[in-house]
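Trying the structure run again after the queue cleared.
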Amino acid sequence: MHDHRIIHTERLVLDDPRPEDLEAFYALRTDPRAPRLYPGRPIETLDQSRELLARVIEENADGRARNRMIRSRRDGSFVGSIGYWRIDPDRKLAEIGYKLVVDHWGQGLMSEALLAFLADADRARPELDSEGWVDAWNVASIRLLLRGGYRPDAARNPDEPEVLRYFRPAPGSGRA
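Done. Tokens:
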């Protein structure tokens, strides 16, 4: 079910997560300069990060997720992560998630990664609609989702009314 395509853009390489990403993955998820926008318990230790990374790799392998690590094309350094998770084959729905190392904010890298990821995902899984949940104050993330073809949706999480849903229909669904 899992494909191992590597996605190349002008400045980036998007590829599979691997165990040797642990230190960078941990740093990405614990940087105090970045907002903690993750469901569930926050990552606080290297062991928690190791468990999460192992789960990401496993979910990629069995098709429950389609995650990619974002690396610099120039030197291979870790820049961030992007992917579909919570893939529900019955509902034909996935949730998009992404995070960029703070030192790389404001360079257009996540836009470049998102557009390349979505183009590849549309080829590999054309039946999937996708959604993105974002805090109402996170204007940069809202703009990114809009650039990726997501549109505001009326759905709300009753436990978090300040979190907005953005929806992107599957290609060719006629619901654009």
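The two ends are 27 Å apart (CA to CA). Worth checking whether this holds up in the mutant runs.
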